[in-house]
């Protein structure tokens, strides 16, 4: 179960870092830039801990897919960015892939 906590922290850290990346204004603002570096450092550290028990392909697929979906949600809620229908369909397919991996794959420890 610990691997899922590590993976969740990795995903949240990556989403926070990516959100701060926009606010860093090309690394010209100190505090958002520090959040970016710290967030990505934490994301990769916790992803590496996850890889002790979850295969790299599966862990990375979940990390990337969840990160994409969450950053799209954050972008909509915080930055007011909108998505068109094809983008929403694409995100739903990513979420569906996440569900299929977690529910049906024998590569994922349950």
UniProtKB/TrEMBL annotation:
<feature type="transmembrane region" description="Helical">
    <location>
        <begin position="85"/>
        <end position="104"/>
    </location>
</feature>
<keyword id="KW-0813">Transport</keyword>
<dbReference type="InterPro" id="IPR037185">
    <property type="entry name" value="EmrE-like"/>
</dbReference>
<keyword id="KW-1003">Cell membrane</keyword>
<protein>
    <submittedName>
        <fullName>SMR family transporter</fullName>
    </submittedName>
</protein>
<feature type="transmembrane region" description="Helical">
    <location>
        <begin position="58"/>
        <end position="79"/>
    </location>
</feature>
<dbReference type="InterPro" id="IPR045324">
    <property type="entry name" value="Small_multidrug_res"/>
</dbReference>
<keyword id="KW-0812">Transmembrane</keyword>
<comment type="similarity">
    <text>Belongs to the drug/metabolite transporter (DMT) superfamily. Small multidrug resistance (SMR) (TC 2.A.7.1) family.</text>
</comment>
<dbReference type="Pfam" id="PF00893">
    <property type="entry name" value="Multi_Drug_Res"/>
</dbReference>
<dbReference type="InterPro" id="IPR000390">
    <property type="entry name" value="Small_drug/metabolite_transptr"/>
</dbReference>
<feature type="transmembrane region" description="Helical">
    <location>
        <begin position="30"/>
        <end position="51"/>
    </location>
</feature>
<keyword id="KW-0472">Membrane</keyword>
<keyword id="KW-1133">Transmembrane helix</keyword>
């Amino acid at each position: 179960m610990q691997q899922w906590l590590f993976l969740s922290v990795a995903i949240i850290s990556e989403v926070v870092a990516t959100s701060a990346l926009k606010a860093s204004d090309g690394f010209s603002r100190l505090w958002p830039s520090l959040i970016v570096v710290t967030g990505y450092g934490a994301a990769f550290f916790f992803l590496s801990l996850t890889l002790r028990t979850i295969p790299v392909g599966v862990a990375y697929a979940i990390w990337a897919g969840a990160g994409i979906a969450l950053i799209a949600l954050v972008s909509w809620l915080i930055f007011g960015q909108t998505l068109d229908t094809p983008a929403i369909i694409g995100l739903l397919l990513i979420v569906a892939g996440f569900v299929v991996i977690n529910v049906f794959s024998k590569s994922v420890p349950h």
